[in-house]
Amino acid sequence: MGTPNGTVGTDLCYLNASKVESPAGALGHLDVQTEDGEQIGALDGVLIEPTARRIRYYVVALGRRFGRRRYLLPADAPAQLDSKALRFLDPLALQSCREFRTGDVREFSDTDVLSAMFA
């Protein structure tokens, strides 16, 4: 959910991928790939909207080639998750990513857990 000036909405917060569990296991070790299995980067974290209990973006860390930058990929883009990789199935989703800076959002907190539980 972007805002008119291109920043991420203030209702979102960052959660490190190592703290996220899924049916495929912990997300902290996942590679991010194209549909064809081409390596894009590694899953660094997610941006969550706590009151909606939804992941809105994946935060993907790119390697040294790109200066260790992190980018946002929309969580509603078609993707496939298994125990080793998150594969984006729509090339357009990869083209529409934008850079993520740590200061754009706050860290997920205990208050956010309570918001999610009682929303």
Structure description:
- The chain has a single domain, classed as SH3 type barrels (Roll), CATH 2.30.30.240.
- The chain is mainly beta and 119 residues long.
- Strands 1, 4, 5, 6, 7, 8, 9, 10 and 11 form a nine-stranded mixed sheet that branches. It has a two-stranded antiparallel ribbon with strand order 2-3.
- It is globular and about 40 Å long.
* Continuous helix count: 2
Broad structural category: mainly beta
Query: What is the CATH homologous superfamily assignment?
Result: PRC-barrel domain
Domain count, please report it: 1
| Helical amount | 10-25%
User: Got a strand count?
Assistant: 11
Ranges where pLDDT stays below 50 over 5 or more residues in a row are: 1-7
The biggest beta sheet, please? 9 strands, mixed
Could you tell me the mean pLDDT? 80
Mind telling me the CATH class? Mainly Beta
CATH topology name: SH3 type barrels
Into which percentage range does the β-strand content fall?
35-45%
Using the 3D structure, state the CATH architecture. Answer: Roll
SSE layout and pairings?
Blueprint: E1 13-16, E2 21-22, E3 25-26, E4 31-34, E5 39-49, E6 54-61, E7 70-74, E8 79-81, E9 85-88, H1 91-95, E10 98-100, E11 106-107, H2 110-117
Parallel strand pairs: 1-11, 4-9
Antiparallel strand pairs: 1-5, 2-3, 4-5, 5-6, 6-7, 7-10, 8-9
Fill in the keyword field for this structure.
119 residues, mainly beta, SH3 type barrels, 9-stranded mixed sheet, two-stranded antiparallel sheet, 11% helix, disordered N terminus
